[in-house]
From TrEMBL:
Residues 235-257 form the Ferric siderophore reductase C-terminal domain. This is Uncharacterized protein. It comes from Paenibacillus cisolokensis. Residues 68-201 form the Aerobactin siderophore biosynthesis IucA/IucC-like C-terminal domain.
Length: 259
């Protein structure tokens, strides 16, 4: 552990929240076909074969669309449990690229994979060192995992890296603006607000392994759209969901193609 972090472990009830709400698991999936180590996504041959199979799950002939929908799921299972643990429990998980597996899982008809870690030791900040500790947690997850995966996947699948990062950003926005506050106490809410502001406005690009902070890059004012009661943050890139739908012109509510 770094000087500003102390080793710790998740309490059983903390792990249960992450398992129930944020797709963390300790159990290998029975479906080994679509369960792979995170590191396989850096291997062009293995990842391309994996994406061919994933295209069948999403029932699309478009590899780009399949990769985009997979990327949404991968982004969620990497960031959701760790950001919640950081902001709510004040603990950081080891979401390094070499420490995790994608575990295939279905909920009803929907394919919603989970993350399984090999090393479950967590960290917590030492006194008056939370900002430095937070940077370590974020950099290992974003720069050490997602940035490397998105760089590799964008080349293998010939898909825009901006699209992959916006797929990540939309979950960060939703988690902090809507999901995380459920049942949070005053101290937890204070940390959530502070962490979210930092992520959107002050976190340096190096934490993301990029030349710009992608969460700031894709943030935009919410606007009202016909048919929706609440204002929406319209995307800057299309996630290609419409290519997997049986309905022509079936775009996401926040799609830039939808007028």
């Amino acid at each position: 552990m770094k000087n500003n972090a102390t080793a710790t472990w998740l309490e059983p009830e903390e792990f249960q929240v992450l398992a129930d709400e944020y797709r963390l698991t300790r159990e290998p999936s029975a479906d080994r076909t679509f369960s792979i180590p995170f590191t396989d996504l850096l291997n062009p041959e293995r990842s391309e074969a994996y994406f061919r199979g994933v295209s069948g799950i999403f029932e699309t002939d478009s590899q780009s669309a399949a990769v985009s929908l997979f990327a949404k799921r991968y982004a969620f299972l990497v960031i959701a449990s760790n950001l919640y643990a950081m902001s709510c429990f004040n603990k950081g998980l080891n979401l390094a690229l070499d420490n995790g597996w994608i575990e295939s899982c279905y909920q009803g008809q929907a394919w919603l994979p989970k993350a399984r870690l090999k090393d479950w030791q967590a960290s917590e900040p030492q006194a008056n060192q939370r900002s430095e500790w937070r940077n370590l947690v974020l950099e290992r997850m974003f720069a050490g995992n997602l940035s490397r995966v998105w760089n590799a996947v964008s080349k293998t699948a010939r898909i825009s890296k901006a699209l992959l990062w916006e797929n990540t950003a939309i979950y960060v926005y939703w988690l902090y603006e809507e999901k995380f506050a459920e049942g949070a106490g005053p101290e937890q809410q204070r940390r959530m607000e502070e962490d979210y502001h930092y992520l959107l406005h002050d976190a340096p690009p190096r934490l993301f392994g990029e030349s710009r902070n992608p969460l700031k890059q894709f943030d935009s004012p919410k606007v009202f759209r016909d048919g929706y009661d609440k204002p929406l943050r319209v995307r800057k890139t299309c996630c290609l969901y419409y290519l997997t739908s049986d309905e022509p012109g079936d775009y996401c509510p926040t799609c830039p193609k939808q007028t």
